[in-house]
Amino acid sequence: MSAAARLCDIIAQGGKVSADFDGGDDGLTALARHGYLREAGVLASVVCDECDAPHSAPVVYEADEYGHYCPDLGFLKLDPTRLAAFSPDVPKLIDRLSEALGCRQRKSSSVYGETWRIGAAQTEAAAVMLYFHPTLATEENARELHHALAREARSEWRLVVTAQGALPIAGLPTVRLDELAEINLTTGALRVIADPGVLAGLPRKNPGGRPSVHGDVLRPLIEGRIRDGAAVVGVNAEAGEVRDVFEALFPNRPIPSASAIKRYIREARRGS
Ligand SMILES: [Zn+2]
Q1: Are 187 and 251 in contact (CB under 8 A)?
Q2: How many CB atoms sit inside 10 A of residue 77's CB?
Q3: Is residue 240 exposed (0-12), middle (13-18) or buried (19+ Cβ within 10 Å)?
Q4: In sequence order, what are the residues at sequence separation of 6 or more whose Cβ sits closer than 8 angstroms to the Cβ of residue 219?
Q5: 227 phi-psi bin (left φ>0, alpha ψ -120 to 50, beta other)
Q6: 133 alpha carbon to ligand 1 midpoint, in Å?
Q7: Which residues have beta carbons under 5 A from ligand 1 (an ion)?
Q8: All residues at 6 or more sequence positions from 79 whose CB lies less than 8 Å from its CB, including other chains
Q9: 46 CA to middle of ligand 1, Å?
Q10: Region 209-232: what's the mean pLDDT?
Q11: pLDDT the model gives residue 27
């Protein structure tokens, strides 16, 4: 299981988890070390697996020892390292997501209830406003989310990140955290692995590369020069020529960057 998927499980679980939650390997302590989880004291209860009928029992502290009472076996000691409890640090997760996506307009407190605004991420074609809601598995979750979003200025493109569930919500695309990002357990770095624009359903204007405000003019200009046999062989030299022609034709427009011109030249030569 990936670190992000594990974090999803922990968030979806809703409360504290113990150090040996889900098998007890070191994924959880690594997530805690990197700040995705914080220590939240000691578990309030455990499941007794010492007797025949598994039951939950409150954790008690007696005679300098942690333990629980089993109706069959009496007081049973508990290993304190197994009792360390962790909770997801949602504000920190929102911070890291916001940073990794290069978001503006991040909100440092929740919008309302458990809904957070990660911020506006600039994608190829438009800005996408990203939100986070821990679980979207029930109608109640959907209501909470709608309630929170009603307080927000309406953005044209929105995407809701969640840790569990994919309840279809009209007009609100959703994505699971582990499908949007991955977490490196060694460094703690969070990396975005999917395009929020695509996930939000934005039409892709220019699949070949970043769009440029100059594309509408540069493309025909460059293609025209190729057709007319006016283009020179070297990309750098041709970019210089294109720049001069552009400047002469459109004296009032800002001159496109050399890299943008070269990108369009390469694109035209590839025939894409
Ligand atoms: Zn028992």
Answers
A1: no
A2: 11
A3: middle
A4: 264, 267, 268
A5: alpha
A6: 37
A7: 48, 51, 70
A8: none
A9: 10
A10: 80
A11: 77
Q: What Å distances lie between residue 111 and 38, 45, 115, 140, 211, CA to CA?
A: 22, 32, 6, 17, 32
Q: Where are the domains of the chain?
A: 3-88, 90-200, 214-270
Per-residue pLDDT at 96:
96
For residue range 124-175, list pLDDT tens digits in order: 788 999 999 999 989 999 999 999 999 999 999 999 999 998 777 777 999 9
Q: What confidence tens digit (pLDDT) does each residue in 85-102 have?
A: 888 999 999 999 999 999
User: DSSP assignment, residue 116?
Assistant: E
Ligand 1 center to 196 CA (angstroms) = 48
49 CA distance to ligand 1 centroid (A)? 6
Q: pTM of the entire structure?
A: 0.65
Question: Alpha-carbon Rg of the chain, whole angstroms?
Answer: 27
Distances (CA, A) of 74 to 118, 141, 143: 49, 41, 45
Distance (angstroms) between ligand 1 centre and the Cα of 11 equals: 28
